[in-house]
Amino acid sequence: MIPAMKIIMLPILLASSVLLPQCQSAVGSDGGQNLVDQFWRADTERAQERSKTQLLEASAGVETLYDWLKTGPNYSDAVPTGQLELSRVATDGTEFPYIVLVPEGYDPARAYPVEFNLHGGVGRPRPEPGEPLWRQGYDGLRDPERIVVVPAAWDEAFWWFDNQADNVPAILKSIKQTYHVDDNQVYLTGVSDGGTGSYFFAFMQPTEWAAFLPYIGNPGVLQNPAGQVSYPLSFDNLAGKALYIVNGENDPLYPARAVQRYIDYMARAGVEHIFKVIPNGGHNTAWLPDERPAIEAFKRAHIRDPLPDRVQWATNRTDRYNRNHWLLIDELDEEGEPGRVIVMRDGNQISINAYYVSAFTLLLSPEEIDFSQPVTVTINDSVVHDGLVTESADTLLTWAAKDRDRSMLFTAELSLRVPLTLQ
Fold it and tell me: What's the rounded Cα separation, in Å, for the pair 414 and 333?
C-alpha cells in the first residue's frame, strides 16, 4: 500500500465480421454520410487512413466533422440475425472465435445494449470449430432486447492475458461497425474464470464498459502466479464503475468467505458494488433465474457516463493498461512502479493530483470544454497551463478510429508533464 496515494495496491489477460457494403460515392447532398460510412467500416489500417484523408478534405472543419461522426454511420436492416459464428484473427495470426446472438427482430433504427458473457474453464485447449463456447448452450443467453456476445478463451488465451485484453474490445468495435449499438449500455458478465475475467477488465481496462457482473469468480486469481500472471490491483481503479458480484456460500473453488476480503477493499475505496452471497450455493449458477430481475434492474440503473467529470487511474506500466476514459498515463517516475493520477473537471477548469507520474495526456471533448475560452490546468495546486487549446480534425479522427464510440469523441489532446518540483 502507498498511503500518500490512498491506494489499495496488492502485488500480483480486427474481427472478421459481417460488414455492410462500403459506399463508393463521395460527399454530395448526404453531407458526408457516405464518407462516414466508409470510415466507420474501414477494417484495415490502409482503409482507415484513406477514409481519414477523404473526410479531412471533404469537411469544412472540426465542427462539421464532429457533427458527422456524432451522427454516425447508416445502419442497414439487411444484416444477419440470430446466432452468428464469427472469428477475429489477431496480428500474430491467432484466431479468436466468438458467437454473436442478434435479436431476430433487430431494428437498425434503435441502439441496442450489448452484453459480453465470458465463460469459465479457460484451462482447456482452444475450442474446435463448432464446439460450443458456453457449455449450457446459448438459449439461456438470448434476449430480444440486446445483442449478446460470447467470446472464447483457452489455455493460451486466459481472459486476463494481454491477447484477450486486445481481443475483447476489438470484437466490440467490430460489432459496432455493422450493428447499431448503444455505446453507453455495454456490459461485461462472466462466470467462474469468466467472472475473474470481468474483474480483470474492471481493474485494468474499464473505458468501454458500463458495469461489470462477476459471477462465482475471484479477483485473487489475478494475484496468483498459478494464473500465469501477477497484477498489481488498485481498488481505486474500480471506483468509476459499479459491480454486481455473486458467490456461493459453499463454493468449493471460490467460496464467498474467500472473496470477502476483496469486497472489504472495495468498500474502503468507495467502489459502488452489490455482493450477493447465495446461501449453501456451490460453484454453479442455479441461482440465476431467481436473481435475474435484480440483475436486470442493476443494468438499467447503470448507464455509462462516457465523459465523467472525475477520472482517476493507477498503473505500473505505460505500454498498456494506462487509460481511463479521457486520461492516459504516458510516463511514470519509475517504469514498473505504480503511479496515480486523479483528474477533476469543472468546465474549463481542470485540477489534477499526480503521484509518481511524470507525464500524462488529457483527451478533451467539445461536449465538456468551451474551446473558445482558455483552459486552466493545475497539477498538485500549481498552474501548468492557462490558455486556449486548439482543436484538431486529425485528433478527432484518430481517436474515433481507435474507440468506435460516437458518445466519446475527442477533438484535442493536452499532453502535460509534471514539473520536477511537483513530483
Answer: 19
Up-side HSE of residue 208: CA atoms within 13 Å toward CB? 26
Helices (H) and strands (E) counted in the chain, each on its own, are: 8, 19
* Strands, sheet with 339-346, edge to edge from the N-terminal-most edge strand: 310-315, 339-346, 349-355, 375-379, 382-387
Report how far Cα 215 is from the mean position of its chain's Cα atoms: 19
Q: How confident is the model at residue 43 (pLDDT cuts 50, 70, 90)?
A: confident
pLDDT, one tens digit per residue, over 17-27 is 333 333 333 33
> Whole-model pTM?
0.91
Spans of all domains in the chain: 3-10+76-301, 33-71, 310-422
Question: At 139, is the pLDDT very low, low, confident or very high (cuts 50, 70, 90)?
Answer: confident
- Segment among 20-24, 267-271, 327-331, 418-422 with least mean pLDDT: 20-24
CA distances from 423 to 266, 358, 359 (A): 27, 7, 10
The residue ranges of DSSP E strands in 64-192, in sequence order, are: 82-89, 95-102, 112-118, 147-151, 181-191
Our measurement of the distance from residue 324's CA atom to the centroid of its chain's CA atoms, rounded to an integer in Å, reads: 9
Kindly state the cell numbers that stand for 294.
Answer: 435484480
Q: How far is CA 304 from CA 205, 242, 377, 408, in A?
A: 14, 10, 25, 11
Cα 161 from Cα 204, distance rounded (Å): 11
Topology classification of domain 3-10+76-301: Rossmann fold (3.40.50)
